[in-house]
Amino acid sequence: MPNAAGPPIPAPLTPADLEDCVALDAAALGGLWSREQWRRELEEAGRPGVGLWQQGQLVAMACGWLIVDELHITLVAVAPERRRLGLGRRVLEALLRCGQAGGASRATLEVAAANDAARALYGACGFRQAGVRRGYYRNGDDALIQWANLAATERFG
After folding, report:
1. Looking at residue 144, which CATH number applies to its domain?
2. pTM (2 decimals)?
3. Which of 100, 102, 121, 127 could form a disulfide with 146 if both were Cys (CB 3.0 to 4.6 A apart)?
4. Does residue 155 form part of some domain?
5. Residues 6+ apart with CB under 8 A from 99
């Protein structure tokens, strides 16, 4: 739990953050991942994660997988009461920097076609649509496949 007081500062997620990640996942995403999935996410090499803490509470996080020279973003979450304050962008940009430091030259993700807020965030961070996965999500929504070229930008460095 870095930075217990003051403005939130991005910090790497560690296995010690398991309970905080599970709680934020439940609040922000309805429990997308199980406790076991979170444990693996936080313990395994090649899976960078970044969190923002404010007043001792994890308020935003972003996770990904480094696969050769690509960063696959698996999750971006912000506490519902703290949305629209730029916290999602801060953790996403911090994760993109981690990806660059790990050798990634590009990043990819899937986003629900109906999730306008997330699509705007990803667009502001340089992601562009490259395809569609029809019926990808549990509720039947399509996923938009998006890519960003990390090597071509200095804004994350």
Report:
1. 3.40.630.30
2. 0.89
3. 127
4. no
5. 48, 64, 66, 71, 107, 150
